[in-house]
Amino acid sequence: MRSMSLLAAAAAACLCLSTPAFSQEEPQVVRQNLMKEIGRSVGALGAIAKGEKPYDAAVVEQSLTTISTNIQAFPDQFPPGSEEGHETEALPAIWEKPDEFRAGAEKLHTEAQALLASMPADQAGVGAAMQRLGPVCSDCHETFRAKKQ
């Protein structure tokens, strides 16, 4: 009887490893989650810049910090073999031009860090920050991300 219980527990443990929580360790999922957080941060900054939300220094700081932190980890989530799966929008150029890809990520990190150092102090400042971040994001998306259908 005891061995049946142990066998059942072992089987349950194996099933847990094949759940979605396990797949979150896959690089496609990790990079998608990193980019979703960046997208939410850009959205928060955009809402302030457009006057849809009031200026909030904590939101601005948190958003810029998230962008800076996540983009640093982002290039490491594209190992060979992760070109497909999980509805990835990554283009082959990422693996063909890894130095250019990393340089784009570093450029966004540098911009976010510079903005954090000078910390936009009002809605206009956030708008100016968006004008600095936007082209960097767009350049990378144009070169390394498949267009959404």
TrEMBL record:
It comes from the Bacteria. Transmembrane segments: none annotated. Residues 1-23 form the signal peptide. The keyword Iron applies. Gene3D superfamilies: Cytochrome c/b562 (1.20.120.10). The keyword Isomerase does not apply. Keywords: Electron transport, Heme, Iron, Metal-binding, Signal, Transport. SUPFAM superfamilies: Cytochromes. This is Cytochrome C556.
